[in-house]
Amino acid sequence: MKPLSRVLAFGILTACLASGCSKGGVNKLTVPGTVTYKGERLRSGILRVVGSNGSFATAPIRADGTFTLTDVMPGEVQVGITEEPRSSSASDGKGGKGGPAPKAVALPAQYQNPEKSGLKYTINEDTRSLDIELK
Q1: Looking at the record, which segments are called Disordered (predicted)?
Q2: Domains in the chain, please, with CATH?
Q3: What does the pLDDT look like over 7-56, one tens digit per residue?
Q4: Which residues does 18 contact at the CB level (< 8 Å), separation at least 6?
Q5: How would you class 77 by CB atoms within 10 Å of its CB: exposed for 0-12, middle for 13-18, buried for 19 or more?
Q6: Are 65 and 36 in contact (CB under 8 A)?
Q7: Cα separation of 114 and 18, whole Å?
């Protein structure tokens, strides 16, 4: 009887540990949005999102001021934006003359750190767009 009890106890312990390590079925989200500064859309940069649980996501800001965050954990998030210098070389990689690079906007330094930016949002299944307005 003792060996059977040990096998049973080991099986229960293994099942408990395995279920404790799962994410509990939390669905990560994809969230599109825009970033504006003083009413104008940003034309470049990197958006960083940090969740209250330590999760994070990043997305490049496109030339039209839009971004798409993927694999975002639902909940409260803080946002930071880092400027990204753009090259004026051709996008085909052949070194020819490309079009003019989007003019970089100098953002206040406070927006670079998600914890100090003051940009806080709630992301959930109902979030259709995250529109960030910097002043």
Answers
A1: 78-122
A2: 25-134 (2.60.40.10)
A3: 455 556 555 555 445 455 679 999 999 999 999 999 999 999 999 999 99
A4: none
A5: buried
A6: yes
A7: 34
Whole-structure pTM value: 0.69
Distance (Å, whole) CA 42 – CA 40? 6
Token output for 93: 């990689």
Q: How many residues does the chain have?
A: 135
What CA–CA distance (Å, rounded) separates 59 from 49?
Answer: 9
Contact 110, 116 (CB under 8 A): yes
Tens-digit pLDDT profile for residues 67-108: 999 999 999 999 999 987 555 544 444 555 555 555 667 899
